[in-house]
Every structure is written in C-alpha cells, then in structure tokens.
Amino acid sequence: MKTEYPEISTLIPHRSTMLLVDRLLHVEEKKGKVQATVGKNHLFLREGGTLAPEVCSELIAQGFGACEAFRRMQKGLSLEGGGYLASVRDVQVFKSAYAGDELTICSEKIDECFNTYIVRGEILCKESKLAQATVYLFMWHGKEPPQTV
User: Fold this and answer.
1) What CATH code would you report for 8-141?
2) Which residue among 29, 49, 86, 123 is least crowded, i.e. fewest CB within 10 A of its CB?
C-alpha cells in the first residue's frame, strides 16, 4: 500500500522563495526522503546556473523538518511549533547542482537531546551524491520555544 503524503507547505512554516523542498517521498521512524527541484529562479541559484553549496544544510534541515512533522501527524500529535538550524558540521560538497536538477534529500535522526535533533543528511541527484552534512536542529512543540535559564 502506497502512503499518501500531504503537501510540504502544510508541514513546515517556510513559504515562497524560502520553501526549498517540494514533496515527501518516504518517511520511516528515523529516516526520510524528500524531493527538491532546482528551478530557474531558485533563491540560491548563482550566475552560471549552479546552486550555491551553502544551501545544502538548509535543504537537509527542511527535509528532516517535513519528515518529522509527518511522523508527529501520524501519531496524532500537534504540528504547532517551530525550529531553526542551530549548527552545521562535517559539510562535504562533492558536485554542483544545476537549474533543472531534481534532488533527493535523505535525512536520518542520529540523536536528540534538550529539543536539539542531530541529523545526518545527504543530497543526491540521479543517484550521484552531491553533498552530505550533519545538522543540529533546535525544534519545539507548542506556540513558543521553551524558556532557557
């Protein structure tokens, strides 16, 4: 049985030019895959038609965020909340992405501590690995982030 996934825009708060991922492809307990298309007017497209490598961590973060929201939805939990990309480590960019490329962003939750998710991700284009990184995402559930001391 094929899973029907909701529109990405119902899962994460990003809109318009900052919404970089297009649709969920597959979601498991700790892993997920999303699709992103590099449009000719992509916010991070450089002159010469290549995607700025700095955007790789944001693609992984948005992909994971959408998958995590879907997991919460499947459990009947609220999608109210937010998050942000707190840190990036071990970024490696192997190849460029170009306007027109269809990317697959794979993410896996490695650990979670004090509302911070440690996520390992990679970006593929036609089965060729373009980039990989570990991202740290601070995420909360409810109207406001938890108070820190």
Assistant:
1) 3.10.129.10
2) 29
